[in-house]
Design a protein that fits this description.
The protein is mainly α and 350 residues long. The chain is built from 15 helices and two strands. Helix 6 (85-95) crosses helix 7, helix 7 (100-127) packs antiparallel against helix 8 and helix 8 runs antiparallel to helix 15. The longest helix has 32 residues, at 198-229.
Length: 350
């Protein structure tokens, strides 16, 4: 009888190389020997566990990426990247497939939310000085992830093949014409020609469902690994203290008395993920997205606007093609990449 009672515990412990324990000293060893949990540091500063320290934006971004991955795979069962089948499949998804509209809106809300959360995460890192040594390269990886988030949303914008998506991509692609030397090449590589058509739809689909998600997943894993190796939240929590003025003071011995990352940090991550899923589903249910008329090359809407995250760039181009389309974006991008190497202040106060 006793052996039957112990079966659930034995099944649970079989997933781990170390047995379950309530002792604080035994928990780090269990985390180290677990394939999934070893990405976490052994101990984390209690300051870093406060919501006000990081605002949880990194966890929110990763959670949204997981929601996008799952919902995107389900959408692939119904979608066909061909003209005009793409538009017809979107109509079937909204009006025929059970919970199809909700599935599409979950994917839409998560995509826009990921762009916002990654951007806010980059701003948080900037204003708290988290890009400074030894985290310079991880800042560059983060900028790459921000670029990929925009690219994922941009390539997915065309897939419904309605008037809004067609002309938004057409207007956005027109901005590439203002880049000298490489303008025609970039447009041909992206669209497969001079205009948005079947080739563009197929290329956007391949980029959206395969190449960009794979690259994003690899960079996210590397980004998380570098966070741990470069000091992680435990070190950052002390570096961000304005009273700290020297690099030597940024890694005090008091970190050893921090809280074990397992199981506290793990449960916080699970809680954030579940909260993100709940919020996305509620927003998707409350604010369903529409589907406009099928794309028509002969009847452009007035005005024709790029996706919301490129509207600012479109407005700059309308004032000056050279300044808005080339000089300002390239200058912002270049300064962002050089920022951690130009800022020599050791204090992590941004």
């Amino acid at each position: 009888m006793r052996s039957l009672i112990d079966v659930p515990g034995r099944i649970r412990d079989s997933f781990f190389r170390e047995p379950h324990t309530h002792r604080r000293r035994g928990r780090p060893l269990r985390a180290i020997d677990n394939w999934f949990l070893h990405i976490h540091p052994n101990r984390v500063s209690e300051i870093s566990l406060r919501a006000a320290t990081t605002l949880g934006l990194g966890l929110i971004s990763i959670s949204l990426f997981l929601v996008l991955t799952v919902s995107g795979i389900l959408l692939m069962f119904y979608y066909v990247p061909a003209v005009p089948d793409a538009y017809e499949r979107m109509q079937d998804l909204i009006f025929v497939v059970p919970f199809g509209r909700l599935l599409r809106d979950v994917h839409r809300i998560a995509a826009e939310g990921m762009v916002v959360s990654v951007l806010l995460h980059a701003l948080r890192v900037f204003f708290t000085g988290s890009y400074k040594r030894p985290r310079e390269f991880n800042w560059l990886v983060g900028l790459g992830l921000l670029t990929l988030s925009l690219a994922l949303s941009f390539t997915g914008y065309l897939l419904p093949w309605d008037q809004l998506s067609y002309w938004a991509i057409t207007v956005s692609a027109a901005i590439l014409d203002y880049y000298p030397i490489v303008a025609g090449t970039l447009r041909s590589l992206l669209l497969g020609g001079r205009s948005v058509g079947q080739e563009a739809l197929l290329r956007f689909y391949v980029l959206h469902v395969f190449f960009l998600p794979a690259l994003t997943g690899i960079l996210i894993a590397y980004h998380m690994w570098r966070v741990r190796k470069d000091g992680g939240l435990a070190a950052q929590a002390h570096v961000h203290d304005p009273a700290v003025s020297t690099p030597k003071q940024s890694q005090p011995s008091s970190d050893r008395s921090g809280a074990p990352s397992y199981p506290l940090l793990l449960w916080m991550e699970v809680s954030v993920f579940l909260a993100v899923v709940l919020v996305v589903v509620i927003l998707a249910w409350s604010f369903p997205g529409g589907l406009g008329p099928v794309a028509n090359v002969d009847h452009p809407p007035n005005p024709a606007k790029a996706p919301w995250y490129f509207v600012g760039l479109q407005e700059l181009v309308s004032y000056s093609a050279v300044w808005g389309g080339v000089i300002v974006p390239v200058a912002i991008l270049g300064l962002s990449f050089l920022l951690p190497y130009l800022d020599r202040d050791p204090r992590g106060i941004g």
